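Chapter review: from sequence to fold.
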Amino acid sequence: MRVYDSYNHALADSHTYEDPGVIQVVSTKTKAFRDALLVDKGKTVDNRQTVQNMFVLSYVWHDRPLDVLEIGGACGANYFELSHLLPGRIRSWHVVETPAMAAAGRGLVRDDRLTFYDALDTAVAQLENLDLLIAQGVLQYLMDPLQTLEALLKLGFTYAYVTRTVVGDSIQHPVITKQIVNLSAHGPGALPKGFTDRKTSQPLTIVPFASIISRISVGHTISYSFIEGENASMRIGSQTVTTKTVGFLLEKVRQ
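The C-alpha cell string follows.
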C-alpha cells in the first residue's frame, strides 16, 4: 500500500464514494435488503455488529423513541434493519451523505421517519432532539478524521456512537493511504445480478488510537468501548502499521 502526502493526493488517485458504480450497487443492495426485512417475521439477527447496534439503541434514552443523526449512512440500511428489529424505537433518522448517495437514498424511502441530507447543518437543524449521533465505518474515509470527530462531538448530541473505526496502534501520526476493495464489498449482501465485480478505491486515513481517545475525552465520557475486530498488520510504504477496529458509545458530560 502506498503512502500519500495528503488526502487530496490520495483522492486524485482513487475512485471515491461518488463512483457511479458504487452508488448503483449500494442502492440496489439496500432496496433488496429493505424488501427482505419486510417479510422477515422472525426478526433474524445474524451478525455481531447488528447485536451491538441494537444494544446501543436500546440503551440510550430507553424511555422514549429516538431522534438519530447518522453520518455516512449510505442508503439507509442501518435504519431499515434497526427499525425492523426494534419497532417503535426510532422517531426520526437523518442520514448525511454525499449528494449522489443522498439522492439514491431518497429513492428508497417508504416512511417519513427516514430523511436524507447532503448538508450536515440542515440535517441537525431538522431534528427535534439531539439524542444520538452515529458514525459507523466512516471517519477513516474523511479528509481529517480527528478534526471531523471533534466537530461532530461539538454538535451537542447527548450520545455519540462511533463504530467500525480503523485506528493504528503502532503509529504516532496519521498515515494516509488508499483502500482497494471489490465493488461487491459495498452495501449489504451479495453483488446483485447484472453487475460485474471490479476493484474500487477510496482514500483511507489511519489515525493513532491515542489521538482518538484524546478527542473523545474533551466533554464526553466513554460509556462503553467495543473491540470490533482482531489486530491486523498492513505494509504501508516503508513501515508496518498495526491496526484495529474499535467503537465507542459516548455520553456528553452534563453541566
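Two observations follow directly from the output. The first helix runs from residue 7 to 12. The radius of gyration is 18 Å.
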